[in-house]
Write a structure and sequence with these properties.
Length: about 375
């Protein structure tokens, strides 16, 4: 289902960190478990204490509901869901193993027609290493996408293994891509990632033209945690009177760290990103439970969304973040924000990029690419 108020097939062949890091590693018959900091231990994962109002019984049999759905979904999607259900959780795999899994040679290949170089952007804790991808044939200032990448605030760091992913954005959208290597958890807790990415956004707004970029055509976003960061820094720029993005790209966004929605129960296990996965990365990222109520962690709690940039939102029908995403979409629309919403039927967390070769993704990615080009591409409307 696609709605709004207001290129060819995708050839992306990279690992979708933000779409649930557990999906990056094939399940094995035996594996080590890890504590919240990623240290290997023998402790078993548990869902205890994850539910809102613990002690109140859950009336519906969600495992039976999932089993019924798997008999009705098409074979292509059923194979994906059964594979994901057999894999260990993020907690069980551990932070170090997941970070290593992204270091694949194919991820470091720059597509033809794209150039890349590294810079440093001044940040609140020192220079932020940043990689920039440009269209090889760029003439004059080009639009730019600030990739506040996903990975649950715990993964996706470094600059060596993102050339395929970000280079494909350059080709699909006809713009530059800037990816700051922002500080991640658990080494750096909230709000370190927010502070670094906001510094990068303000830098592009003030110095973009010096870099061959058009500050009127800035996009920002990413998947899950990347979407969370992207929408938060857009609101921060609005409040500070800085240049705001022309478009927010929020796919499978984390909008509310309290994890108290019905979709958290309904899709807690067996649909890709588990509720236990969200609990694990959230505990690594936040300093305390009180941080859940800080709007910079839970942007749905922002006092106002008025004058926020237009947003392109993709969310899977069958993912734990579905309901909080829809609540955030409704808040944006109530505030007069243009929202292009694409809800993926029978899709899980981040499937639009994790599984780009499915029938659904092949039909939907061109829609996403067209909207992004309309805002930040060569003839983008800008802001």
């Amino acid at each position: 289902m696609s709605s709004t108020n207001a290129s060819g097939p995708n050839r992306r062949n990279f690992l979708g960190m933000a779409a649930g890091a557990a999906g990056l590693i094939a399940g094995t018959s035996g594996y080590a478990t890890a504590d919240e900091g990623g240290t290997v231990s023998t402790a078993a994962a548990t869902n205890d204490g994850l539910l809102c109002l613990p002690g109140i019984p859950v009336a519906r049999d969600y495992e039976a509901l999932r089993a019924q759905r798997m008999t009705e979904v098409d074979p292509e999607m059923r194979a994906i869901y059964e594979d994901l259900a057999a894999r260990p959780s993020i907690r069980e795999i551990g932070i170090d193993a997941i970070r290593e899994s992204g270091k694949q040679p194919e991820n470091a290949v720059i597509p033809p027609g794209v150039t890349a170089h590294n810079i440093e952007i001044p940040g609140p804790a020192g220079p932020i290493p940043t990689r920039v991808w440009m269209p090889e044939d760029a003439k004059g200032p080009v639009g730019v996408y600030l990739s506040t990448h996903g990975g649950g605030w715990n993964f996706g760091n470094g600059m060596e293994y993102h050339d395929a992913e970000e280079g494909q954005h350059v080709l699909d959208w006809g713009c530059a891509v800037v990816r700051p290597d922002y500080r991640i958890a658990p080494e750096h807790k909230f709000p370190a990632a927010i502070e670094d990415c906001y510094a990068a956004l303000t830098y592009l707004g003030r110095h973009g033209r010096e870099m061959g970029l058009d500050p009127a055509r800035i996009g920002v976003g990413g998947g899950c945690a990347g979407a969370n960061i992207g929408t938060v820094i857009s609101l921060m720029a609005r409040d500070a009177g800085e240049r705001t993005p022309a478009i927010q790209f929020l796919w499978s966004p984390a909008c509310d760290m309290r994890n108290t929605y019905l979709s958290d129960l309904e899709f807690a296990s067996g649909y890709g990103l588990r509720l236990d996965d969200a609990d694990f990365v959230s505990k690594n990222y936040l300093r305390s439970r009180e941080d859940c109520y800080d709007w910079r962690a839970s942007p749905i709690l922002a006092e106002s969304l008025k004058d926020a940039p237009p947003a392109l939102v993709w969310v899977g029908e069958w993912e734990i973040l579905h309901d909080e995403t829809m609540a955030y979409v409704n808040r944006m629309r109530d505030a007069g924000v243009t929202v292009h919403l694409i809800e993926g039927p029978q899709q899980g967390h981040g499937f639009i990029y994790l599984y780009p070769d499915t029938k659904y993704a092949k039909a939907t990615l061109p829609q996403i690419n067209k909207i992004m080009r309309d805002y930040i591409g060569p003839r983008g409307r800008g802001r």
